[in-house]
DNA sequence: ATTGGCGGA
């Protein structure tokens, strides 16, 4: 298969068919030692002696001196390491021990907050210091560093924010871009920023910047080429062998095939060997959970007791935590998960992985402004990532519900997010750094249409003067200060003109968080009834405002959220976002203001940033978007779903089955003529407003 | 007539 694969892991064996009854899904196998990415090490409470022993037993420890000398010799290196190699915790310590950091900081980026926090806690424990002293972390809302911090774990997004203040990142002597294979938008932009900073610092004879890229991918030449053929160092991991099976025949229903496979395994495997199944979404997972529970009833006594655990991000946290409880003796867990279990969540004790080979992917279409959420085939790299989830404690098995030929036809690597998402924010950030997004040295260039679409929208919002121009207006500079979609930043900055900053802050904060509504399937009617008292007939935005106003007024927040079927965690997050935004507004010298009960002001203010998102009722329930002439419908979760007003403003349009408008408010077409007269003229919207 | 993969500032 892939030659590099064999370098890191064990030997590849020829695959052979297994003898199974013809009524089941037939698999062929090939024994492989899975290639894996690095997960944050769990913080375990241990004495200092044991900690040192643990450190010394890590594979990376044995090659310490070679690693140091390579990193010392080269200004940029790529390090490929398997899970359990200890690269993320040890290599920064090694560099610090020999003072490679000199008079600067070693910054280590992570795609996720929890990883940055737990890693820095682990490393400060290993170095026998308090977290926040020599070792610290910086994530949104939380900065646990001090004057003496030398090893700083931070989210990639945080380092990008720091680059906004200093493009040369002068406080750092070494930057480690960890988990680079995940290719988050933030890491991808950082690639270019860090490379530019390194070159400029050399050019200006400033202190040099060393770059270390850490990844688990097979496609490492790509990273190396980007920096000009820099050395690649491979690290051994501590991964157990995993036997991989492919379906011998093409399956036409991957959900059903997964279900069949679960029971094939369940009937043969000893108790306490758990199964992890990768599926694509909440609905699919809940449906399969119901099927399994029904089938289990008919199996009585013949097999170990089988317990089903759904796992997806919108699941309340206490239900997510259930997954981590060890399986009771004589039982078996089957976890039905989205790709959350691929990277974000690590479950111990998994012996079997069943891979549907599918994933839900969001793709932005700049011409129509439409986001499409579609089920697609995964990439080979992703398939290996899933496979690896079976071999964390001991040897394991992975059943791929697709043939080897289908595997072979998959993309080697997934399309990076930067090539398929809305780039308005990225482009605004680059322009704020005086970087031309059309010539920026991306690791992988996004399609021209995405960059142009972003420039177009920034021009509409008044952030730039001309689409060709790369200079921000005063408005654009202010917008770039906010950690928001530029349309929301625009609304926030307009709020002073409408005297409703208090209200807009609450709404924008809630739009930045996940849904606050909790609707357990078993208590659906009760939950909806509880939500109804917050509903506003003018739409979802004012409904969100009503919720936030009530939330901030009550003292017993936990109980209140429970009674009203609202998600406490998401409301608290929104409240943190709100404080941060309020502080930024204050820094922009904006006066606080409130429209109290005159909430029409709020909807008018929303128009200043979302005027391109207007839709008009065509016939019953069918709307037409004014700018892109798309046929759409209001999302069933909207309070306007059954009211269908003549003219609405929407926050986003997403195609799942049909095209749906989400977060919708009724607006008076007359407002458009007052608020965005040029836009109305340009788009000949006079029929709408007359 | 009927519903939201995962992160992050």
Automatic annotation (TrEMBL):
GO terms for molecular function: ATP binding; double-stranded RNA binding; hydrolase activity; RNA helicase activity. SUPFAM superfamilies: P-loop containing nucleoside triphosphate hydrolases. It is an enzyme of class 3 (hydrolase). Residues 261-434 form the Helicase C-terminal domain. It catalyses: ATP + H2O = ADP + phosphate + H(+). Its EC number is 3.6.4.13. Pfam families: DEAD, HA2_C, Helicase_C, OB_NTP_bind, WHD_HA2. One of its GO terms (cellular component) is nucleolus. InterPro entries: DEAD-box_helicase_OB_fold, DEAD/DEAH_box_helicase_dom, DNA/RNA_helicase_DEAH_CS, HA2_WH, Helicase-assoc_dom, Helicase_ATP-bd, Helicase_C-like, P-loop_NTPase. It comes from Cryptotermes secundus. Residues 68-236 form the Helicase ATP-binding domain. Keywords: ATP-binding, Helicase, Hydrolase, Nucleotide-binding. This is RNA helicase. GO terms for biological process: positive regulation of transcription by RNA polymerase I.
